[in-house]
Design a protein that fits this description.
This protein is an alpha/beta fold. The protein is 51% helix and 12% strand. The protein has two domains: 325 residues, Rossmann fold, CATH 3.40.50; 78 residues, Arc Repressor Mutant, subunit A, CATH 1.10.10. The two termini are 69 Å apart.
Length: 526
């Protein structure tokens, strides 16, 4: 080897050691091609559990056609008007009749029930409820007209008595010096007739104090209807409204007394506080209320759970245009039932009429209640759902009594097996809706994951976001560290996100976490 060749080889070796070879363009393309692409994201499980569809066999024959007619003409779920009918019937019965679920026990159940229909705006829940409540408004209008005529007569009698009192006062003045005893007798006040009061059926917006006054003259019960129940529930969450909450909690039982004390007005004692309740609420609002109540808020006292007739049905995307006259035969059959129950009389000495199960119905009740009580005493169910289901202790016998009063009012105060079977079918149906209602508490990560994915798709979160970014947004169901982490981690499990953990720097500290977004979850560019 020549000196030139030897020096050239030495230079090449030195270059290789000091300046490593850089990859050429083809090597770079090869490296890029080995980067793993994003996997196809897996659809999230449903945020809401499925619910049972309403079966018209759940209703007595006389009420079935009316409910079906309303649902078809309004193109809304029949659940709305069905719940409204049952609650309306329960309010007409009120505390006039009770059921003794046990054969040898003094436990009595008043059949006043609370109904809640859940639906987003525009699904006709308010019109469906309003249509069912029209007969109550008609009854109340009739009572008001009768009261007006009687009240005018009472006012005239009071005026005559006032004139007579004035005359006696004048005569007593003349006799006072001569015959004080006779004058005193003349000044004795005349017994005034009691002011007539109108029977009420329906209350829309009243304070607890006013409700107390109404119940003193309507001792068998009233129906409280709120088109949007969320306002009522939240108003009772405020500080200083503990008395109002206690009043409504007592009103659910239907047989508890309640005293209302006010400065300057003395005490108003109500021997029997009996209220039925009905209203609607939007899904987002009821989920927010459930979430806050289950987190230990003011609503965590069982008030919401008393809405045993709570339904959250699926709304069909299919719409059929229906333009026909109402089914008047079905409506007349239902109105005949309501009018008959309006005339229902209590027992002797103004005590409720007591109904009991037949031997067959009693055996059926016992076969249901034992496994039911065993289940809710276990640890498998979420406490929120247990609290709701525990109210079925009242709901089952109350429904059975309502159906007996509709179907067999002349049975000798006996509830038969068929009425109890219908009540048990109702609670099977209602339980699926209760599971949907409390799903935000039972499986919060699923609801949170759906909410988070919706925000990402709307472009409200940037790629590489942190949990801190989520909390600062204050979004419902994602405002706490735990809720945000569960939602983000669930999206990562289903390949919508990828969790990155960066090691701490030289200064130490905790590893930083961020979430990369699968491009398929990002909003589509126009």
């Amino acid at each position: 080897m020549t000196d030139w060749n030897r020096y050239e080889a030495m230079a090449a070796q030195l270059d290789a050691e000091v300046f490593p070879a850089l990859p050429d363009a083809s090597d770079g393309l090869l490296a890029l091609s080995t980067v793993e692409p994003w996997p196809e994201p897996v659809p999230l499980p449903a945020a809401l559990p499925s619910v049972a569809r309403f079966d018209f066999e759940l209703l007595p024959q006389e009420l079935r056609g009316w409910v079906a007619d309303i649902a078809e003409r309004m193109q809304c779920p029949p659940d709305f008007s069905a719940v409204a009918v049952v609650v309306t019937v329960s309010s007409l019965i009120g505390a006039r009749a009770v059921v003794a679920p046990k054969a040898r026990d003094d436990w009595r159940v008043v059949p006043n029930l609370w109904g809640l229909v859940v639906g987003r705006p525009g699904v006709m829940k308010s019109p469906a409820l309003g249509e069912v409540l029209k007969p109550l408004s008609r009854l109340e209008t009739g009572e008001r007209d009768k009261w007006k005529a009687v009240h005018e007569e009472w006012a005239a009698d009071c005026e005559v008595l006032a004139l007579v009192s004035d005359k006696k006062r004048s005569e007593a003045k003349k006799l006072a010096a001569k015959d004080p005893t006779a004058a005193r007798e003349m000044l004795r006040p005349a017994e005034m007739p009691s002011e007539p009061v109108a029977r009420r059926y329906l209350v829309n917006d009243a304070t607890v104090e006013k409700l107390g006054e109404l119940l003193t003259v309507n001792p068998w019960g009233l129906l409280v209807y709120r088109d949007e129940l969320h306002g009522l529930l939240c108003s009772m969450d405020r500080q200083g409204q503990e008395g109002a909450r206690g009043f409504y909690l007592s009103a659910y039982d239907g047989n508890q007394g309640h005293a209302v004390d006010r400065i300057g007005r003395g005490e108003v004692y109500i021997p029997r506080v009996c209220l039925s309740m009905l209203g609607g609420i939007q899904p987002g609002k009821v989920q927010s209320y459930v979430r806050e109540a289950m987190a230990g808020g003011a609503g965590d006292d069982g008030l919401l759970q008393r809405f045993g007739l709570a339904v959250w049905p699926d709304v069909s995307r299919e719409f059929n245009y229906v333009d026909r006259w109402p089914d008047n035969d079905a409506k007349r059959a239902a109105l005949a039932v309501l009018d008959r129950l309006d005339r229902l009389q209590p027992g002797a000495d103004d005590e409720p009429v007591e109904w009991r199960f037949s031997p067959e119905a009693q055996a059926l009740y016992e076969s249901w209640v034992v496994p039911f009580e065993t289940e809710i005493r276990g640890d498998e169910l979420h406490p929120a759902l247990v609290s709701h289901l525990s109210k079925y202790r009242k709901l089952v016998p109350a429904l059975a009594l309502i159906f007996a009063l509709v179907d067999t009012p002349d049975s000798g105060h006996v509830i038969h097996e068929v009425e109890l079977l219908r009540a048990l079918a109702w609670v099977d149906y209602l339980r699926t809706h209760a599971e949907r209602l409390y799903s935000v508490a039972v499986m919060p990560e699923t609801a949170g994951a759906h909410a988070l994915l919706a925000k990402i798709r709307a472009g409200k979160l940037a790629d590489g976001f942190r949990l801190k970014d989520l909390q600062q947004k204050g979004w419902a169901g994602l405002a706490t560290t735990e809720a945000a982490r569960k939602a983000a981690d669930m999206l990562a499990d289903f390949d919508w996100l990828e969790r990155d953990v960066a090691s701490p720097g030289r200064a130490g500290g905790r590893p930083s976490e961020s979430y990369r977004i699968n491009p398929q979850a990002l909003p589509k560019k126009a």
